[in-house]
Amino acid sequence: MADIILETQGLTKHYGGVHALNDANFKLEKGEHVAIMGDNGAGKSTFVRQITGVEQRTSGKVIFDGQEVNFAGPLDAREAGIETVFQTLALADALDVPDNLFLGREKTKWDWLGPFKFLDYKAMRADTLAALEKTGVKIPNIRNTIQNMSGGQRQCVAIARTASFHSKLTIMDEPTAALGVQETSQVENIIRTLKDQGEPLILVSHNMRQVMDLVDRIVVFRRGRIVANLRKEETDGQDIVAYITGAKTGAEFEGAA
Ligand SMILES: Nc1ncnc2c1ncn2[C@@H]1O[C@H](COP(=O)(O)OP(=O)(O)OP(=O)(O)O)[C@@H](O)[C@H]1O
């Protein structure tokens, strides 16, 4: 049996009468890159929020790295090894790039005079430059605070943060939706690097070209349900769009992976 990093069983989220996510059965293998596609309001972000502990699910199970998990919040998920880049970037505006990259996992060093630990800014700056270099992201001055950066630069910082720590799973929710051509290609290079390093990825995207370029498998959501689970080589853009719009139904579909 393939090594599974993430599995959801019957994952369901209702907001009052709104059935945003229904009975989602999903599996992701270690090293695999999967795209989640679907129309606006199909339930993609809701699915991500239930996995990453941003919200508490109505019912169903999440199994991560062999263990059933109930994350109390996104930091809990991050500690367990899930890095997420949300549509609304979780960056601290008043901090510079190294502080953002190391937020919650600051490097410290011992003071040679006594039993005190200090933040090791020098090491964090060096690691930041190395991380940006590795990912090809160009930020003119890493000491600038995030609030002084363009939307594209912010997104690149968020994604460089994700890519520079070896997480067990990376989730990106529409990472390039607000980016220009050059920044988009930087983000796509980061995704390729993750693939080369054997790190699994869930990519929520509306961009068909990007999905067909980057992932191994496409899972389509429609009206809160998973309606298709397609290996890239067995499908094409037209087929995927047919599932997204409902022209082709997933009535025969039994569950993902
Ligand atoms: N906090 C909430 N309260 C009530 N309804 C919600 C809430 N969050 C999402 N919904 C509803 O749940 C459904 C699924 O929304 P979701 O954001 O998951 O869609 P999506 O597929 O990510 O869409 P998009 O591509 O536009 O981001 C929508 O009908 C949305 O209006």
Provide key terms for this protein.
single chain, about 260 residues, alpha/beta, Rossmann fold, 6-stranded mixed β-sheet, 4-stranded antiparallel β-sheet, globular, binds adenosine-5'-triphosphate
Describe the protein in words.
GO terms for molecular function: ATP binding; ATP hydrolysis activity. InterPro entries: AAA+_ATPase, ABC_carbohydrate_import_ATPase, ABC_transporter-like_ATP-bd, ABC_transporter-like_CS, P-loop_NTPase. The chain has 8 helices and 12 strands. With 257 residues, it is of the alpha/beta class. The chain has a single domain, classed as Rossmann fold (3-Layer(aba) Sandwich). The strands form 3 sheets. Strands 6-9-10-3-11-12 form a 6-stranded mixed beta sheet, with helices on both faces. Helix 4 packs across helix 5. The structure holds adenosine-5'-triphosphate. Adenosine-5'-triphosphate binds next to strand 2 and helix 1.
Number of strands: 12
Coarse shape: globular
Task: Give the CATH H-level superfamily.
Answer: P-loop containing nucleotide triphosphate hydrolases
> Biggest β-sheet: count, sense, barrel?
6 strands, mixed
CATH topology: Rossmann fold
Uncertain residue ranges: none
Beta-strand fraction estimate: 25-35%
Briefly, what CATH class? Alpha Beta
Q: In angstroms, what separates the terminal alpha carbons?
A: 12 Å
Could you tell me the mean pLDDT? 87
Structural class: alpha/beta
- Radius of gyration, CA atoms, in whole angstroms: 19 Å
Share of residues in helices: 25-40%
Number of helices: 8
